[in-house]
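Priority: low. Protein: Autophagy-related protein 18a. Input follows.
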Amino acid sequence: MKGLCVVSQGFRSLVLVCPGLQKGLVRIEHYALKRRKFVMAHDSRIACFVLSQDGQLPATTSTKGTLVRVYNSVDGSLLQEVRRGVDKTKIYSLAFFLNAQWLAVSSDKGTVHMFGLKFNSGSPGSIRSQSPSEPPYSPFSFIRGKASPPIIRCCKRP
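Result:
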């Protein structure tokens, strides 16, 4: 994981996210704001991370691959934690969709987990105002109410 970073141009500044020097640590740089934040994201080493397009939301997972955490990039606060499973696995990728309303997580278990996120990316830390019975429109509407994560299961790799 050394040397890998993600950069986003948004939220009024250039934002860079990369692993810190200690295991589980994430470094967040807001260049225009001249602000640096270190977040102790996990107890284990960082395995995979992503930054939302607007630069407001870094999501991380560790080498255990069971938990994914989403943070506020400005103050480093934890916004949401989701569980991919209980078995250790290697996470291949994380991706935000639909202005960070959804987070996709793929792993070596041959699955893709889709998590609905509960905050509004336009205002880090704020909760969306829709009621649970009237979720926002999404191309994933067909799976609503069918299952708790994992929602989508892909074929095993050969």
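The domain at 6-116 is CATH 2.130.10.10 (Methylamine Dehydrogenase; Chain H). The chain has a mean pLDDT of 77.
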